[in-house]
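Give me a protein, keeping tokens residue-aligned:
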Amino acid sequence: MDYRIQQAAQMEIDSAKLVAKRLFETYDRNRNGIIDYDESIPMIVDAYKSFNRQFQPTRGDIDSYLKVMDKNGDGKVTYADIEDLCIKYLCPQYMQQAKVRPVDPKFEIVKKILKKYDKYNNGALDPQDLQRALIETTKSLGLQQPNQRDLAALLDQTDQNGQIQLIDIEQYLNKGLQG
């Protein structure tokens, strides 16, 4: 792929990720890292409002909506699910190319280790678990251990509950894998 086309594709994907972040921050009102059943209702209502339609979703509508949004089928709608959907629908021309690329097993290792330390299963880690997860992940992948500056940068992203979202940690580790 030509460099300019690749750069434009990345810009569009980054824009889709920004939309996902805004959506997630808007509707994850309790900041637990998951769009819950009750939080999905305003999403549905607002989607219909954007088409100048009033709509009161039924339980079946909500269940169907949540099933569509839960891209990985783990029973939770997380930031990663919303991001995948935004990229899929806002950047469809690049999705075909993305499907052809094989997934690096190292990325799966990152996800698996982070999930292991997510003791509350809420898509976030507390600072102590973050440090343990980073050490295990970098050791498993043969990467350089995180320095204090990197750790401080990640800790600056803590939410009001004192936790760091898995998506932020994953992005940090994936940059190390790509670099």
Remarks:
- The first helix runs from residue 3 to 27.
- The longest strand covers residues 124-125.
- The chain has nine helices and two strands.
- The beta strands are 124-125, 164-165.
